[in-house]
């Protein structure tokens, strides 16, 4: 079997971590009789600077055909400039569930050992949609739209996942005390879904309190269900619990299409220096392998990553080691 996969290496550290990921997926697949055809596209800030095109039309077509893509981070300018290609692609393919498992790796010493939670972030609406206007040079306006459809389907995805993966609790995270209508609708919908899934315990936490709770006692959380912007922020917070952004993978999932990508960005401070940790993208690839039904390859790749961490000899600088991106990739291949 050959899987056709759309690949966006991306900006900054993207090409470095993507190279490691492709080699590892190839090796894991080979062990179990799966092959991969990579359809690679330049998109993002570097592509924009080079060709004046942010997202080539062929990239859209490729994802439409292949239905599965994996991407490195793409940089988005702060303030002005072009809008995020991530937001554009999530909207274009209606990838409404952003799923981010936050799980401690064996052997890594962190403040919180044994973390195991999953974030379900609504991925198409909220302030993150970037519906903004300058009313006049001194007044800016951002539109926050929350819908019953968007809130209900992310809640259903979270509860479905909880039931199928032995999870016990879902926390709906919101700020409905202040945004009574928008966040109010969100928790109304998540509560309705909870009432249809009473085997899973349901809680609601206000987002500022949730930040404190996550730092004081993260173990109380199992599945975190939340809106787009809170999910973005809480994801980075949660990555800090287990050792940083170099580790946490993600999947943008729609009805019949998925784009896998790490939580982290293009890390311009370490780009091109063989310093980036490819673990987050590797674990995103593990999620992709399972999505493709290549469960053996996915499990083998995950075990190989964990073996390298358990041994602790070939780790990147962000998690206290002194190996480079490439050396870490080689260690994963050796473990495979
Ligand atoms: P960032 O996630 O790129 O970096 C934050 C910090 O984490 C930096 O110190 C960086 O060196 C470190 N870091 C991130 N990934 C790492 C890895 N794999 N290994 C080791 N260290 C790692 O966030 P920042 O600097 O706020 O954003 C940079 C650019 O990335 C911006 O243009 C932003 O728009 C973009 N971005 C893109 C995302 C995507 O394409 N999915 C997601 C988040 C940000
Ligand atoms: Mg983010």
TrEMBL record:
Residues 4-332 form the Isopropylmalate dehydrogenase-like domain. The keyword Oxidoreductase applies. It comes from the Bacteria. The keyword Chloroplast does not apply. SMART domains: Iso_dh. SUPFAM superfamilies: Isocitrate/Isopropylmalate dehydrogenase-like. Keywords: Oxidoreductase. InterPro entries: IsoCit/isopropylmalate_DH_CS, IsoPropMal-DH-like_dom. PANTHER family: DECARBOXYLATING DEHYDROGENASES-ISOCITRATE, ISOPROPYLMALATE, TARTRATE, ISOCITRATE DEHYDROGENASE [NAD] SUBUNIT ALPHA, MITOCHONDRIAL. Belongs to the isocitrate and isopropylmalate dehydrogenases family. This is Isocitrate/isopropylmalate dehydrogenase family protein.
